[in-house]
Model the fold of this input.
Amino acid sequence: MNGERLRPEDVSRLERHAAAVYAPPGWAMPAAVVCVLVGAAGFGAGLAIAPGRAWGAFLANFLFWTALSMAGVVLVATFNVAGAWWGRSIQRITSGLGAFTPVAFLLLGALWLGRPYLFSRWNAEATNGWLNAPVVFLRDAVILAVAAALIGWTLYRSLRPDLGALADEGRLERRGLAAFLLRNWQGRQVERAKTTLFHRKMSPVVLLWYTLGYSVLAIDLDMSINPTFRSTMFPVIYWIGAFYSAFAAASILCIFWAKSAPVSEVIGQKQVRDLGNMLWGCSIFWAYVTWAQYFVIWMANLPPEAAFLIERWRTGWGGLAWTMLVCSFIAPFFLLFMRGLKNSRQGVAVVGGIGMLGVLLQRFLDVMPGIPNLGPSTYGLVEVAITVGFVGIVALPYLWLMRRVPLFPIEDPLFLRMLETRGVEV
Amino acid sequence: MIGDVVGLIGYFPGPDALRNGIETAVRSHAVDPVAYTPIPDASAFDTLRPSSSPVRWVALAGGLFGIAAALSMTIWMSWDYPVIVGGKPITSIPPFMVAAFELMVLFGSIGSIAGFLWFSRLPDLTPSQAYRPELAVDQYAIFLPLGSESERGRVERILQDAGATEIAPVLRSERGRLEVLD
Done:
């Protein structure tokens, strides 16, 4: 159907297929629980062997998944601000990741327990009052609380018209989450108009909070591991990496949902290629901002800044650093040159997975070499197990939410437009 | 006859018939078919589209030229007036990468545009071979060029098989312009 405007009957058929609540694959929830158990075991073993490693891996994963969770909703805000309709079919699939942010708020509390292993250099080396442990954690708790509120509000407004439409047609029972979200239901037209107005007003707020709030989060919990290192590009690299990962997550989640929902029908070839193009663009922009940080450090050659790079690229961590660069930029950049691969759902998902791994490794490289009293280039099964655990912790709230709501924004006018013209080259 | 027959043009009643016609012509190994549509028709483009566009290679060549030009320029200038700054070597690749990136983008873009214009045979300031004003209003047509007069029967059959409602020869005019005989 590439290159054709769909016939009205095909659009109606797709609309009917899209307008439903789909359960994720049956193996997903048990697998997520197993992942959490593996992570807990790995974290426990890590605490027994080398607490610094366990807390370092915890922090690196916390930073990566927390930003990814918000970035999933930021994609929706970006589409709304830009008036983009190509990505309407993937926006719910990624914005569901926002369900993890309240959990991240709780995990920040757990990080408080690990601060002796992670942030013990604050008092010794920090030169100002910014890095004061209670203030840092309070500040970051406020950031995550506001982020969680914005995500919750965005999801509420996005889901309400879709759930209401299904309930009005008798295809959904008003109980549980649906009943909660559909309180004071005012009819499809009014709710749809309210949602459009909400997105118009609040999407810029979501974007601003993401860039400003998560910049502070990156400075507080990531850059401060090395208290004497300062880089104004550091927060930018952090949230660009998460934005990149959100597109990568979308490509993987499309495969995840392919068997249990009509994903391949609703998300056409053109959208898959657009996703591949966005991944390619994000990998280039990630390299751009990373180079911008490196170049300034190289030019000034100041010991506290240069030490940050030397420690990561010229010591035992060098192998991991090169792997990170290959995964984040070199591999996606060259692989996504291939049109055939970019037209393949599986191909784009594989490249997305590689890119995501690269950004995760970057968080590890930010954190691990900076942990006090940790041996050089120490990483292994403990870190892998904790990462698997975080996959489970992120998956559980995601699956909980997504099995209760439609997978596609069926009441979004731009979603219908996307269906009508999904194969047309523009 | 005003001149040599350079091809045949077949008219089709609408976009679906045109698309079927293009598919038949392509299946019959017609050489260089040209489609005329009054409005852009993505499906007709897709059917006619060659497997891959050579424009990307021109863009790549432009980008590589940009990198080479920037590195050559910066390295040559640095050695032509060598000043050591901050203990850095005269040939310092990191700052030169900025110029290399910018010129890669510049010449890559120029290469893309130039390649697009070249392979699209643009600018085309005179109407193309079989063009006539109705083709910009409500007519759909396919033009098939003839390599030689002996091919005329085969090309005519292709257009007939493709479902053309009317077939007309396209002649080279005495002035060198190409026109359609009414």
About this structure: Confidence is low (pLDDT under 50) at residues 174-178 of chain B.
